[in-house]
Design goal:
Structural class: alpha+beta
CATH class of the largest domain: Alpha Beta
Helix content: 25-40%
Shape: globular
Distance between the termini: 33 Å
Number of strands: 20
Order of helices and strands: EEEEHHEEEEEHEEEHHEEHHHHEEEEEE
CATH architecture of the largest domain: Roll
Number of domains: 2
Largest sheet: 5 strands, mixed
Length: about 450
Amino acid sequence: MDVTFHAVRTPTLALILCSVLAGASGVCAQPDARRSVDGVGAVFFPDPLSSARATYGDPGFIDADDADSPELSAQRVLVTLPDLSFDGVAYALAGPWAVAVDLRPPDRGPYVHDSPSLVFERSEPMFEAVNAYYHIDRFMRYVNDTLGVVVRPYQYEGGVRFDPHGSLASTAAYLPASGVILFGEGNVDKAEDADIILHELGHGIQDWITGGDIALGGVLGGTADYWANSYSRSFGRWHPTDEPYHWIGHWVSHNEFGGGRVTDYPGRYPDDLTGADHVDGQILATALMAIWDAIGRGATDCLVLAALAASTSGDDQEDFARAVVQADRDLFSGEHLGVVVPILQDRGYRVAPTYEDPGLTPEAPFALGAPFPNPASGWIRVRVSGAASGRIRVAVRDGLGRLVSEVYAGAIHGGEERTLVVDGSRWAAGLYWVEATDGGTTLRRPLSVLR
């Protein structure tokens, strides 16, 4: 099914209409503003088992301590590597959306080459750097340019920083303090599998879109597995009847080393919770990917981004499920609720098409929702509920408290909810505050604007 995304600028409910039609340290290759050039690289698309429709252990399809084989080499695909940095001597994997760094041992960098043709065998350290650069760059462009949702690291300027050889252990990690992604070399190199790349990038997406207010309890692991599976399924390598259609970590985890997760997990919320975020996250990821199957990638990706933007560190999986329902109401006028709600209910989440957040009820009549998207560069959506007095004023102020925009002033009665939109396309980059007051109480939400 083809997916078309329409970014709209209109003072209506939806900021984005998705229409389904058919500060790190280390050696860092910094982008050179003087010259940016496209290169060519060889990558797995999205991993060697999926592209070959093979099983780990088939002839030639084993890691063998990072050894090359004719079968694995044949699964490399030539792709364009956009916006490499060229200083007149070397071409660096450093662009506006992804930057390869050499942050930790075993110190395989710097990730530069004397030619724009970055075609390597998987046994060469540059292969993993090229592979991760391509998939991170591709996904970040998709979110920011195709979906129109501004999501960038807040810890530094420029592309997502990643160390393709950041550990000798069998691990991969996103580091919230620095905003850097590390990929380990243990067992199978983690940066060889787009599932693992997108999973860790998914942690970053949650961090950046919430400004560091990260929800755990299975939301962290579940949404990261969602991004991994959503991305890999978009390549169309597996059919819904194939067992690997539901796998996370096709090349890295579903093998002799074990540990692979799935998105056809049988558990239900909350009865089957274990207390382990990534294990429990399979319940949420399974529900989200069932929605993906029903309404398509584009619409579901929009719902997940909107739900993440509305989430906070105190939220659990059920809160997130309710945010998904609210997102469909806001972005699609509830078009998909007849499908979304039963799927979430089947997983044990207590949701309903008419659900209102606890802060948006007569018992708690005055509430201000998180602005979406955040960071933003254009139209911004804000939800507000009514006050007992029936009079509410909503405004945006800059970091010094100066009025930037008067968004709304009028009646919104207790229990009533309204979605407001404001155009931030002409505001300077920086930190702003969305402010709502009912005459006695003032509520504020932070908003970052990027340029």
